[in-house]
Amino acid sequence: MKWFVILAVLALLATGGWSYWRVKNRPTTTFRTEAITRGDLVPNIGATGTVEPQEVVDVGAQVEGQIISFGTDDKGKMIDYGSTVEAGTVLARIDDTLYQADAANAQAALDQAKAGVTKAIADLAQMQAKLEQAQSDWERAQKLGEGDALSQSDYNSYKAAYDTAKANVGVDQAIIEQSKASVTQAEAMLKRSVQNLAYCTISSPVKGVIVDRRVNIGETVVSSLNTPSLFLIAKDLRQIQVWVSVNEADIGNIHADQPVSFTVDAYPNDTFHGTVGKIRLNASMTQNVVTYTVEVNTDNSDGRLLPYLSANVKFEISNHKNVLLVPNAALRWYPEVAMVEPSERDAVLADAEKSEDKDGSDHGPATRPSAQHREEQASTRGMVWIVEGKYVRPVKVRIGESDSILSELMSDSLRAGDQVVEGVEDLQSADTSTNPFAPQMFRRH
Questions:
Q1: Which residues lie below 8 Å from residue 60, measured CB to CB, with a gap of 6+?
Q2: DSSP conformation class of 252
Q3: What share of the chain is helix, strand, coil (3-state, %, to 5)?
Q4: Which residues contact 375 (CB under 8 A, 6 or more apart)?
Q5: How far from 124 is each of 129, 130, 135, 167, 183, CA to CA, in Å?
Q6: Burial track 84-104 (b if 16+ CB lie within 10 A, e otherwise)
Q7: How far apart are CA 258 and CA 248, in angstroms?
Q8: CB 35 within 8 Å of CB 320
Q9: Who has the most CB within 10 Å: 16, 40, 49, 259?
Q10: What string of pLDDT tens digits covers the 445 residues of the chain?
Q11: Calpha distance 233→405 (Å, rounded)
């Protein structure tokens, strides 16, 4: 029993010693690497927008009244959201009782005006007959002259009768013109009344799809200063647009016919494509941020894109085929001096000091360049790090265009498949567990 205890203690000490040696001698830092790849790079500008019908018609009411019924579509169903309509399809009817009465009154007024013209013409004929009689009497009186055959009073009477008859003819002619004007006015009033009566039947002016119905049966529409909107019709949903709000800082990179891709939440796994149609010049400002609306045209022959869906849009700035690609994280990462290959440290420190001098700050020789300065350098030149043993070695490269994940890499010394460092993982050195199967904890930088 005594020997068994001694052997157990020795085994425990040996296991503990081995665990301590393993922990003490294992590397404390592991470099996280990613491979350089070759592929296509499509730098883009991201923005958000809304799917909109390319052309919509707002159908309103031009008269007041109560909606008494809706029309039917080509399938015999009542007009509603999504109904397909043709030009001339009845959409709704307004109670026309009052407008029928107005039309009847206008017709009666026209008939009365026409009767007035007829009467005036008859009166004129009668006055012309009297004028002819008065003219004959006056001419005979003038031949006889004043004397024994014709007294002075009779002579004057014939003259007055002639003058009166001539004046009455002129009056009747004026009455005829007035009556004709009354007819024209009555015809206009009748036309107006008939048109208002026709407005009680609201028809579609175009072929399209009902996007919105804004009225119900029994509701009264009031047409005053503004025409009330009853229906919104999209003329053709096979061609649709995305209205995208683009920041003023990016608008200079947008142009007509530019390729665009976008996604919508309704189909998260599908990517749709289109082209820039035009840039609207009426910019808007929200919280001191100026944005422009860009119209993107896209084909919707399959009808999947519905009006007013939210869209995540990417404007294609350029397209680089079959180029070396490096993760942006690898371009942003910079090691501590102790991680650098000893033979490279002096050069790295010199570069760091030069970078800090250009950046306008002095943080000492061991300070790494600021992230902002490195990002500015990445637009033309940059640096990546490759692992050599337990250290890393710098490789200076040229950097082309970039998207949110990858950048184009131009280097004569690097190839596709080469591993570059994009971060480190520090293993927890204070691992005192004697269980070799215990999980090994590490800390990320």
A1: 223, 227, 228, 229, 230
A2: G
A3: 35, 35, 30
A4: 332
A5: 9, 10, 16, 11, 18
A6: ebeeebbbbbbbbeebeebbe
A7: 17
A8: no
A9: 49
A10: 555 556 665 666 666 555 554 545 545 568 899 999 999 888 889 999 999 998 899 999 989 999 999 999 888 899 999 899 999 999 999 999 999 999 999 999 999 999 988 888 888 888 888 888 888 877 777 777 766 567 777 777 878 888 888 888 888 888 888 888 999 999 999 999 999 999 999 999 999 999 999 999 999 998 666 778 899 999 888 889 999 999 999 999 999 999 999 999 999 999 999 999 999 999 999 889 999 999 999 999 998 999 999 999 999 988 888 989 999 999 889 888 888 888 888 887 777 776 666 555 444 333 344 444 444 444 578 889 999 888 999 998 999 888 878 989 888 888 999 999 998 876 554 444 444 444 443 333 3
A11: 42
Name the nearest CA neighbour of 207 among 189, 245, 233. 233
Residue type, 83: S
State the residue for tokens 């002579």: 155
Tokens representing residue 111 in the block: 């008939």
Cα–Cα distance, 240 to 273 (Å, whole number) = 12
Tokens found for residue 372: 């902002």
Long-range contacts of 16-25 (CB under 8 A, 24+ apart): 16/434, 19/433, 19/434, 19/436, 23/429, 23/431, 23/432
